[in-house]
Design brief:
Elements lengths: L1 H8 L5 H5 L3 H23 L3 H21 L3 H19 L3 H25 L4 H9 L7 H20 L1 H9 L1 H6 L4 H23 L5 H4 L1 H9 L5 H21 L7 H37 L1
Helix pairs in contact: 3-8, 3-11, 3-13, 3-14, 4-5, 4-6, 4-7, 4-11, 5-6, 5-11, 7-11, 8-11, 13-14, 13-15, 14-15
Length: 293
Amino acid sequence: MDNDFWGQIFNFTDYSELLVLVRNSILAGALLGVVGGLIGPFVMTRDLAFAVHGVSELSFAGASAALLFGVNVVAGSLAGSLAAAILIGLLGARARERNSIIAVLMPFGLGLGILFLSLYGGRSSNKFGLLTGQIVSVDSPQLLWLILISTVVVVALLIMWRPLTFASVDEDVARARGVPVDAISMIFMVLLGLATAVSVQIVGALLVLALLVTPAAAAMRVTSSPLLTPILSVVFAVVSVVGGILLALGGALPISPYVTSISFLIYLVCRIIGHRRTRRGSNARQLVPATAG
């Protein structure tokens, strides 16, 4: 019983031959790690973690509809993500309004997606994969889509990095300095929609937070540097996704448990490191007055 259990989780028989099957997935995972790692710190700074979940549900609904009607799943996922992102960007100017809109969109998108999947008569693995990810789901056309979308997101982020950082840290001051805060916010929501749509293809709609939020949250626990934070976030995201793919290849489970477990372990280690640094800093500050006296 125990051997069967562990064999489903870790089984590296014929592992080298199986690696060829996931070459596209590994490349796609690395790309998504870069995208998620770069956009994640802005998601955290702008308090949009809840929005990622809301966008992913509409992305799931769009992908499910595409699966049902036999059209490109990536295109369906993109349509759902962009619709949700634009709607949240237009109507959710304030945090309270934004959270209310997201709370309405989430069950609607999930229910719509489940409806489309219930009507779909194809393979059950396709249905399950939209929720929890598929390790061998990335074919060459999908990979091309992923490369193009990832390039658009990364290039756009790099172009608007400084004003986006300014607007994310202090929106009022940025507006007073003439930064087009509203336009930047809308563009960022579109980029977030694109990043969410491509992430759903790998880790599934339910666990996309592990790619777009957790790596950035981990990086921000150990550093506040505006340069080091996105670098660490990218490293953590790439390790989580690629490591999850490589581990999932040796088991009989979907990719998502491996990705989320690695991502959570990284966050846990970073949180412990950050806590120890905070305690050391606090102790050092307490010792200074005593020494001075």
